[in-house]
Amino acid sequence: DKLRTDFERRKSEVNAKWTLTPALGITQLSYVETHVNPYFATLLTPKLGIVYGFAEHWSLGISAFGTAASLTASDPNVSVRFLGLNARAGFGFSTFGARRASWKTNLMVGGYSLSMFVSDRSMGFDRMFGPQLVIAQQKIIDLDNSLSAYVKYSALIVGSNISLTKREWAGGVAYSRVF
Asked: Residues near 113 by Cβ (< 8 Å), separated by ≥ 6?
């Protein structure tokens, strides 16, 4: 079981160090605001994340992302861009027991800040922030390759109250390769 031995060795190395993750993704935006026509777009979104694994199952991470370009938009006369920051603490564990250590689930809690920039100021928000909950599933294919998926729920702080009805749902999939 050389792969398992190598995987466990690599896992212990990763859990005790910093990990930098640059990414480039596609965002499918469906934005709905009261008294404004819904806005739909496909955006090119770069992201940079850094995670510190400080114990076997625990990690801290921050990430920043922004809109680089709009690929499609329901209103081509309106440009929409986002700039965001996430900070999270997480707990990771093998999902299917010790025999299936190549599957890992991460439960993360933290906070976010997000700003929206609209060319004609017809909609949007500035400096939205609040708590977030993220659930991620990762499949380690081999020492250098993995697949992952996540779902994120972000509540909005309105005044001094957390609103569970004003929120953001997000999700994504990724293929990762260690170089």
From this structure: 84, 85, 127, 128, 129
